[in-house]
Specification:
By secondary structure, the protein is an alpha+beta fold. The chain contains 19 helices and 24 strands. It has five domains: 94 residues, no CATH class; 152 residues, GAF domain (Beta-Lactamase); 124 residues, Beta-Lactamase, CATH 3.30.450.20; 99 residues, Beta-Lactamase (2-Layer Sandwich); 104 residues, PAS domain (Beta-Lactamase, 2-Layer Sandwich). The strands form five sheets. Strands 1, 2, 3, 4, 5, 8 and 9 form a seven-stranded antiparallel sheet that branches. A hairpin with a 2-residue loop joins strand 2 and strand 3. Helix 5 packs antiparallel against helix 16. The longest helix has 63 residues.
């Protein structure tokens, strides 16, 4: 392959060699002529050849110098051209690399860079770009996974709140669930089917709620057991996800028209392998895997809530039946007690004696509230305790007053029947009775109204005897309200000091899964797992020493299911300060424990991911530091190359002047010093105009553009101009201007070749 060289440069120096040869030949002839004293004419030259034949050899000197000058000039031009090409190639590659690094620094990690086999720095930076791409993609993936987990956690919390707030109305609960679920997963339509299995011979599903396009729809659809996709979902007890929905199955209709959905999700409401219903959701968008998993989790929570509601309904029904039976037994017990009291009153009346009666009357007046009324209810007599308790000061204030003066208006209706019965000679009354004092306060008593008969058997008067129980009654009502509230809101039972079950409310039985008869055969240790008994024995031992316990315990139901309870054990002592029984009060925290466990697992996973992210960050920082070192080393190499190139330019035979875009001289080689007769120390960092003081006349557009920073330079064209050296000598030169742009900085390199020829 031929090496490139400048033909004009070779021709010029070949011509110079020829003239030098002629000049030397002329000097030789001149010296010979002086030596032999021969005139320097044509005949004289021939005579000199005759005298000195060696001159024939010197006649070839111009041609020898032409040949030598040609090859020397060609070699120098070739080397100079290759150096210029290499310099341009290196500068071009450095500019590309600089633009590539600037793009990476600006965040454009998709920037392209054409690699050469020898470009080690370029390969390192491209590898760094590829690593940045991978790290960015991994970060996007992790962020998507975190967003999905947060979406699922927020959704579970939201639907947990819905299930807790509307669990007493199944239709409202189903609508709230399906409407919020359709909105949350970004679907278009949804249906809620509830299993109706009260009649074993007619098991079917009833659509209790339907929601579409932000509106509540009329829900009355009945689906038979095993019918359609809903029935298939129940039979298989698995989620059905269809990406191709049959055209005749479902249409989503809005004000803009109707269309067939792209996908259909049917999820059974299943808990502990028991089906309670089905959720059906249709959407134009295909559901993601995490969305399907979320709907399945929500379905499990819904099924658990429905199962709890059904248990509560059955429990309420059993409780009403139990209360009805208790009322019947209480009425029978009251009737028996009244019969016994009537028999006792008859016996006392038969054995009464006058002295004992007087003594009894005095005792009664000192200990009991006593009053006497006629059959019309008019007060005939009231003892001191009656007056004091009802806040009166004397008999004159109450005697002759009607009994209704001491009875609350709210109690008059039933008391009126009581008094009519007494006035007719009916059976006496004994029980709790509330009176009203003078100031309007309530006076609770254990009262007895007894008819006093005359000798003819008629009612002469009605005797009233009572004991003040106001404080005890208020405390009893308060205790009764607290116990009822405790039975409704908490799990409650009673155990003997040795751990045998004495009593339990309905919530305790529902939680453990036993009926009362089976539970009575169990001890406290039968409700916990084998590995938890030592802990319970320690707690029970503390209880026997008077130390109460409050905290979480894990119980086992009849079906061996684990239930976490927040438990309070407290002891009840008898009058001898001995433990009579142990009261067990608890609340079910199984769901909170499960959520706490899941939250802990999520936290652990997040911590692992944070550690991985931190490790990746450390590795990325290490690679960035390594890349910076490589870039620094490469720039050092570039600086070395620059210095080497400057040294090469220093050795050029032609003058080389490098200026910046403002015309300030940055480089001035030795040839330029000789051409302009100016020291580089004088011109470096000075304006280029100092070298052309007489050429700034605007006649030469090439030189005028070169000297004016505001004008566009004429680059790549070789022009012949005249310059003036410092000594005033005018020199014709060929000048070529090249432009180099790195970033925003522009430099101009002027190659100036002296084409003047000195013959003498």
């Amino acid at each position: 392959m031929d090496r490139k060289y400048s033909k004009s440069f070779v021709f010029r120096y070949t011509l110079i060699g020829f003239f030098i040869g002629l000049f030397l030949l002329f000097i030789i002839f001149l010296i010979e002529a002086i030596v032999y004293k021969i005139a320097l004419t044509f005949s004289g030259v021939l005579e000199l050849h005759r005298i000195t034949p060696i001159l024939y050899f010197f006649d070839l000197l111009p041609f020898l110098l032409v040949t030598v000058s040609y090859y020397v000039a060609r070699y120098v031009s070739t080397v100079q051209t290759e150096l210029n090409d290499n310099l341009e190639t290196e500068l071009s590659r450095q500019r590309k690399l600089y633009r590539f690094v600037e793009k990476l620094r600006g965040g454009d990690i998709d920037a392209d860079y054409a690699l050469d086999e020898s470009d080690i720095l370029g390969k390192s930076i491209v590898n760094l770009r590829d690593n940045l791409k991978i790290s960015k993609q991994e970060e996007i993936t992790r962020r998507q996974e975190d967003e999905q987990r947060n979406w699922v956690a927020e959704g579970m919390a939201k639907f947990g709140e819905i299930l807790r707030s509307d669990n007493d109305n199944m239709e409202e609960l189903s609508y709230q669930v399906i409407s919020n679920l359709v909105k949350y997963v970004g679907a278009n339509q949804g249906g809620f089917y509830l299993l109706e299995d009260n009649d074993p011979g007619d098991k079917h599903f009833l659509q209790t709620a339907c929601y579409a396009y932000e509106r509540r729809k009329f829900a009355d659809q009945r689906v038979e057991w095993g019918e359609g996709i809903v029935g298939t979902c129940v039979l298989e007890a698995q989620t059905i996800f269809l990406k191709k929905v049959p055209d005749t199955y479902l249409n989503i209709t809005s004000g803009l028209g109707k269309a067939n959905p792209k996908c259909l999700l049917v999820v059974p409401l299943k808990v502990r392998d028991e089906i309670h219903g089905v959720i059906e959701i249709a959407s134009f968008n295909v559901f993601e895997k995490y969305q399907i998993d979320f709907v399945e989790k929500v379905a499990e929570s819904i099924a658990s809530t429905i199962a709890t509601v059904k248990i509560n309904i059955r429990t309420s029904k059993l409780l009403r039946e139990s209360q009805s039976q208790s009322e019947i037994l209480a009425a029978q017990e009251e009737q028996m007690r009244q019969n016994m009291e009537e028999l006792q009153a008859t016996q006392e009346e038969a054995s009464r004696q006058a002295e004992k009666f007087i003594s009894f009357t005095n005792s009664v007046n000192h200990t009991l509230i006593r009053a006497e009324y006629d059959v019309n209810g008019t007060l005939l007599y009231a003892n001191t305790r009656f007056l004091n308790k009802l806040e009166y000061s004397s008999n004159s204030e109450v005697e002759g007053k009607n009994i209704y003066m001491f009875i609350n208006k709210k109690d008059r209706l039933w008391f009126d029947d009581l008094w009519k019965n007494l006035a007719k000679g009916g059976k006496h009354f004994e029980g709790d009775l509330k009176h009203v004092t003078r100031s309007g306060k309530d006076l609770w008593t254990i009262a007895t109204y007894t008819c006093v008969r005359n000798q003819f058997g008629g009612v002469e008067k009605v005797l009233f005897l009572a004991i003040d129980t106001t404080d005890q009654k208020k405390q009893s009502l308060d205790f009764e309200g607290q116990i009822n509230a405790l039975n409704i809101s908490s799990i409650k039972s009673e155990f003997s000091p040795t751990g045998e079950l004495l009593d339990a409310n309905e919530k305790f039985l529902a939680t453990t899964g036993y009926n009362f008869h089976d539970a009575k055969t169990k001890s406290i240790y039968d409700f916990v797992a084998e590995n938890d008994r030592k802990n319970l024995e320690r707690i029970w031992d503390d209880l026997t020493h008077g130390i109460s316990f409050e905290g979480p315990l894990k119980f086992l139901t009849k079906a061996e299911d684990e239930r976490w309870l927040r438990v309070t054990f407290s002891v009840v002592k008898d009058m001898y300060e001995e433990i009579a029984k142990v009261i067990f009060i608890a609340n079910d925290i199984t769901r909170e424990k499960a959520m706490e466990k899941e939250s802990k697992e999520q936290t652990d996973r997040l911590m692992v991911q944070e550690d991985l992210l931190r490790q990746n960050e450390v590795e990325l920082n290490r690679k960035l530091r390594q890349a910076r070192e490589e870039v620094k080393n490469q720039f050092k190499e570039i600086e070395k190359t620059k210095i080497r190139n400057e040294k090469i330019l220093e050795g050029f035979l032609d003058a080389v002047v490098i200026t910046d875009q403002d015309g300030i001289v940055n480089f001035f080689n030795n040839a330029a010093e000789q051409l302009f007769e100016v020291s580089k120390n004088y011109i470096i960092d000075q304006n280029i105009r100092l070298l052309f003081p007489n050429e700034i006349d605007g006649k030469d557009d090439f030189l005028d553009a070169y000297l004016d920073p505001e004008k566009q330079k004429i680059v790549g064209q070789r022009r012949e101009i005249n310059i003036t050296s410092k000594s005033g000598k005018e020199i014709p030169v060929l000048m070529l201007l090249s432009e180099t742009k790195i970033g925003k900085e522009i430099t101009y390199t002027a190659f100036i070749q002296n084409i003047s020829v000195d013959l003498f």
